[in-house]
Amino acid sequence: MYQLPDLNYTYDALEPMIGKRTVDIHYNRHHQGYVNQLNQLVSNLKIGCNDDLITLVKEIDQVPMEYRDKVLYNASAILNHNLYWNSMHPLHRMPTGKLKEQIESQYNSLENFQKEFMKVAKQLVGSGYTFLVMDKEKNLLIMNTSNQDSPYYYGYTPLFTIDLWEHSYYLDYLNQRSDYIEHFFEIADFTLASSLYEEN
Description:
- This protein has helices at residues 20-42, 53-58, 65-86, 97-107, 110-122, 170-173, 177-184, 191-199; strands spanning 128-134, 140-146, 157-163.
- By secondary structure, it is mainly α.
- The protein has one domain (19-200): Iron/manganese superoxide dismutase, C-terminal domain (minor pseudopilin epsh fold, 3-Layer(bab) Sandwich), CATH 3.55.40.
C-alpha cells in the first residue's frame, strides 16, 4: 500500500506563515485522502504499490481507460503534495550548488528568480500549483499546472512547488492568495530541489 510520508517538521513549525491547523488539515485529510483513494483504485489492478509513483504517472497510458483519469489524478496529487511539504522548512534554506548556479545564470540572481516565481504564481487561475522544473537538458522553467496535473506527465522533473489550492492558505490568509505567495519564500526550502538537480 502507498503510505503518507512523514513531515520533516511539526505542524506548528511554519507559523506564523502557515498555521498549525492548516498543516494538520491539509496533511491528514487532503494528502491522506489522495493516498487512500489511490490505494483503493489500484487494489484490483495489476499495477500499483510495487510501481514507483513517478513511473505510474509517466506510464499512465498502461492503466485501463476506466481507471486512468482517477489514478493519474490521485497519483499526481500525492507527488505534488510530497514535493510541497519538502519545499518548506522553518530554517528557510535557499538553493545551493549547481541549482544556485543555474538559477543565477538564467535569472541573473536569486532575488530575480524569487520575483519571477511569485509573478508566475499570481497568474494562476483557479486551483493548482506553481513549480520550478527542469527539462532533460537541465534548463529551468517556472510553470503553472491546473488542479493536480504533474510536470512529470509533460516530461519535466519538478524540483520545488507551492500549492495554490484554497485549502493551502485560506484559514491563514482568507482570500488574499497573493499574501500567501509572498510570505511563502520566508519558509521556502530548496534542500531537496538542490539535491534533485544534482542527481538528475
